[in-house]
Amino acid sequence: MGITIRDVAEAAGVSTATVSRALRGLPNVDERTRRRVQQVAADLDYVISPSASRLASGRTGSVAVVTPYIARWFFSTVLSGVEDVLQEADMDLLLTCIGDHNNQLNRSGVAPRLRRRVDGILIIAVPPSDPQLREIIDLGMPTSTIGLTVVGVPSVTIDDIAAARLATQHLINLGHQRIGIIGGSPSEAPFTAEFDREAGFAQAMTAAGLQVDPLLEAFGYFTIEGGEAAMTALLTQPTPPTAVFALSDEMAFGALRALRAHGLRPGVDVSIVGVDGHDMSEHLDLTTVVQPVTDLGRIAAEALLAQMRDGAPDIDPIRVATQLVVRGSTGPASGSTRE
Amino acid sequence: MGITIRDVAEAAGVSTATVSRALRGLPNVDERTRRRVQQVAADLDYVISPSASRLASGRTGSVAVVTPYIARWFFSTVLSGVEDVLQEADMDLLLTCIGDHNNQLNRSGVAPRLRRRVDGILIIAVPPSDPQLREIIDLGMPTSTIGLTVVGVPSVTIDDIAAARLATQHLINLGHQRIGIIGGSPSEAPFTAEFDREAGFAQAMTAAGLQVDPLLEAFGYFTIEGGEAAMTALLTQPTPPTAVFALSDEMAFGALRALRAHGLRPGVDVSIVGVDGHDMSEHLDLTTVVQPVTDLGRIAAEALLAQMRDGAPDIDPIRVATQLVVRGSTGPASGSTRE
DNA sequence: GGGGTCTCCACAAGCGGTTACATCAAATCT
DNA sequence: AGATTTGATGTAACCGCTTGTGGAGACCCC
Fold first, then answer.
1. How many CB atoms lie within 10 A of CB A180?
2. 8-state DSSP, B65
3. Which of A118, A167, B140, B319 is deepest in the core (most CB within 10 A)?
4. How near does any CA of chain B get to the CA of A287, in Å?
């Protein structure tokens, strides 16, 4: 139970040092020796002890993924991209769910838990207001963020401003004029993506000579229920919008439900467009700006690995392109025949 | 950079052995000594080196989670329950996605990667036909499965037979007689849950004196698209069913879509019931048998921890209760006023 | 008051690798 | 041919913690 490197060395008639070098593909090992060692190791069913290797080398060969949620679509999808790359690179993936302040989970002290345990950290969309975020970044190890930008830290996100403009412009092109928006929360410290998407919306509206009517803004807190409530609020306005841009697909789902509850047809009576490219958006026939979420994770993981290898973090944020996918939830403004 | 236990020992004026015992709460340490050591450790911002501790103790303090998918609802939801418990127990969670044979990911050799790396393994719903499953189980370390039963291995699942009976009985109670079923796949080696749910359906039907009509069975391969296709097939039967039991919510979602495409109203023209309690089921107004998925993960993780502690695996499968949640997708059979 | 117990603690031998340095033979240079 | 470089391997000192063993002192009992 537990073949050691020593056993392999003896069986191969070399020193443990040579076994170590041979098995790890280091240079300065004769090819015949290497093959012999590999053969012996395989025969003996030898598996290196990670703990020993880590202790001796000082490298842990693992990366921590820190996320506020695991079960939500965006997060688990990013995670799957990350996992793919890390597995490919033969790195261990340590999954850590950080608490979310306004959530049931209020986990503190995630940072210390990471201290001597990993070589790099990937942070998925932790709200900038979370105090733990700083602690983790201040650990000073290779770090990269996804769906969130922190100055001085490499990040991978979509261009949220452009995405919002894309969605909004689509509605404008369809001839809509009274365009509403379902935002995240009225907080003063908005999420990066939230802030940018609002900005993109405003830019597109202004560029088209349309007004951003504060009465046509409601908040959905990035949940389905929230989106439903927000849409309901918008519909009960004296003059409701003919089209609505929801900052996330999940809120858009809620909005669709609200429409149905009011007997309104999506894409006919009221148009709804979201952002995300959520799995279900296709099945709910939602027009949305698709972001390549798996790729987000994949790219960030690769950037992190590069950073761990080269030591030089590439601070410039990586922006991934998005794509508008038009489905049935948007249609021409009534009385308009444009597009 | 890197306070060691020696530094703490010196600063506290004790041996490293005492520091080790004091910090880990072992007995045979004077309370005053312990407190002093703790204080010194805190002052020095000492963090134990996991690698060293693991090497010396032979315990890794980590658990691997093996899953065929990360981004799918069921799997990520289980995962979040698991993570919760493991974090609580101060265990590292190593996430490993196993390839899925008929999938793009065809990862082999997951088992060897786990060898000296973890103290226990949690397997989420890997198909029994997957050859890697055996390899992993044959590693011979504490293992527990979720949503899948392997003889001799502790498992946590819902009672799939009962769940299917519950769903089917609900349709029967509503007065339906021509009840169809959307199965997973016509394969000869069905997934455990798949097999049991089919069985539960048959049991309920037979008990009610109804026939299981093979013409009213279609296969949806546990995907939305598959469910849609299956439902479409059922609807194009000469005499289509008035109610359909889908083996999963995702297939039921597809079925709902098919209904809509055919201009049929769920719960009025045709009733649909699913199993899972998928996040979206509420928003799609789907009647379903809810399984407490997060709890599945939580319970399995706790069982695994117990097994790692006591060494005695509790082979008896743990069955978690399910609950029928009635929503708008089911309604009385036309011409029936029962229930 | 000498001979047990019982606590609390120090000593030191690992755990299983990695790697700087030493070694030595073969190859290359002058 | 002798000096020097080069490549392959061995030697051994760690890496930082855990834990079995043993000893010193406190406490108890007859």
1. 29
2. E
3. A167
4. 17
Is the CA virtual torsion A210, A211, A217, A223 positive or negative?
A: positive
Average pLDDT, chain A: 92
For B186-211, what is each residue's pLDDT tens digit? 876 666 788 899 999 999 999 999 99
Element (H, E) at A143: strand A143-146
Is the CB of A33 less than 7 A from some atom of nucleic acid strand D?
Answer: yes
Give the type of residue at A153.
V
pLDDT higher than 80, residue A102: no
Half-sphere exposure for A49 (CA within 13 Å, toward CB): 19
Residues 6+ apart with CB under 8 A from A195: none
User: Residues B169, B171, B174, B177: is their CA dihedral positive or negative?
Assistant: negative
Nearest CA distance, B309 vs chain A (angstrom):
20
For residue A130, give the 3-state DSSP assignment: coil
Which pair of tokens denotes residue A158?
Answer: 């979509």
Nucleotide closest in space to B28 (CA vs C1')? C8
The contacts of residue A168 (CB under 8 Å, 6+ apart) are A179, A200, A201, A204, A205, A245, A273
Which amino acid is present at B216? L
State the DSSP string of A206-251.
HHTT----GGGEEE-TTSHHHHHHHHHHHHTSSS--SEEEESSHHH
For residues A193 and A186, give the distance between their C-alpha atoms in angstroms, rounded to a whole number.
Answer: 14
Q: Which helix (H) or strand (E) holds B133?
A: helix B131-137
Q: Are B90 and B61 in contact (CB under 8 A)?
A: yes
Q: Is the CB of A211 under 7 A from strand C?
A: no
Phi and psi at B72, nearest 5°, equal -80, 150
Nearest to A254 by CA among A292, A280, A289: A280
Q: Is the pTM of this model over 0.85?
A: yes
Q: How far is Cα B109 from Cα B114, in angstroms, rounded to an integer?
A: 9
**DSSP single-letter state for residue A147:** S
Express each pLDDT in A310-333 by its tens digit. 888 888 999 999 999 999 999 998
User: 3-class SS at B222?
Assistant: coil
Q: In the β-sheet with A323-325, what is the strand arrangement from edge to edge? A: A217-219, A179-183, A243-246, A271-276, A287-290, A323-325
Residue A49 Cβ under 7 A from any strand C atom = yes
* DSSP E strand boundaries for B168-327: 179-183, 217-219, 243-246, 271-276, 287-290, 318-320, 323-325
Task: Provide, in whole angstroms, the distance separating residue A117's CA from nucleotide D23's C1'.
Answer: 37
